[in-house]
Amino acid sequence: MQRTCHALLVGILSGERRASLARDPPMRARGRVRWAKRTGRSCQIGTLTVFLAHGAESRQHSGMRLLVIGVAWLTSAGLIAALTGSARADADSLDDVLGPREIAVGEALRGGATGASSIDLNPAGLALNRELVFEGGYGYREADSASLVGVSACDSTNAVPGCFFYNYAGSNPELAAMTVHRSTHVGGLSLSRAIMPRILVGATAKYYRFRSEMVGEANASGTTFDLGATLRLNEMFNLGVSAQNLWASTESPQFPRAVGGGIYAHVVSALALSFDARWRLDGETTARYGGGGELFLRGAGGQTGYPIRAGVLHDNGLDATYLSAGLGFTSLRFGIDVAGRRQISGGKETLIVASMRIFGPRFAAPALE
Hints:
Blueprint: H1 2-12, H2 16-23, E1 27-28, E2 32-35, E3 45-48, H3 76-84, H4 93-96, H5 100-104, H6 116-121, E4 130-141, E5 146-155, E6 162-171, E7 174-175, E8 178-179, E9 182-196, E10 199-212, E11 220-232, E12 237-248, E13 258-268, E14 271-280, E15 286-298, E16 304-315, E17 320-331, E18 334-345, E19 350-363
Antiparallel strand pairs: 1-2, 2-3, 4-5, 4-19, 5-6, 6-9, 7-8, 9-10, 10-11, 11-12, 12-13, 13-14, 14-15, 15-16, 16-17, 17-18, 18-19
């Protein structure tokens, strides 16, 4: 038994950490870890404490929470996984800011993104239409009890279309029977310009602030920039490319560099199809690709409409596949969109997102000639 306990401690502690433990057993990391001395034929790994984060009802707990580990079945690798694993591995700014229209079609709107969708996927898309729109949305992800909030004001009726926006993502993943909290605040400005009727370019400048109680995640804040371009091949087909977090004042794993592109096809007046791919460049390069469609049913008189959306998404870095769908209602004054996404392989993540848009002046989309 003594050999088992000794091997476990050696597996957990390495280098300077073992030396520090030998000199001063009561060590502090994120919480307080107390290592009890071995006596006789028994060994106890002490307690780990953290403060629990504010939850959905803004509650906070403090004090000691016991973490009892059975030496007979726990290996050092198992303990490390318990301390660092979570239902959702990363706080990913590339995904947490997406709205219901993007989610419903498998994140495939880089070629046809407008309004708030262009902020997240391709800022060049702001110049695809001419409207003033205010949007607010909320999403909930069950796997890590995440709340996703976004608000924006976009005006594409001017010579240089632009958007002001703010996004918040707060999650509460569970680690070894404890709840920790991480939050991301992002705000900024997107601008677009049609340099030719068929060629649109855009850029986004944003400030972020990331805070986490997760072991191994560092707090960070700074500025970063996105670029995008859209090519209008004809009245039916658009090509879009974009790059996220190209230049950052502070490097953060939660704001990785990424590039993506896609095609958007308005095959008939009531049906649009799209396909996108995105590559994450920092660390191990991974791909995330998906596609979907939107069927737009017009109401009586043509003053209202009911978009029906569906899509599929695959992430080879997570080895995960998702199915998504969404419904909406739009009129000349406002629009409502709801979307859901369910992971069907590689996990059981469920995401629900909804938003409401309020329209100001709206004009015909810019012509190609």
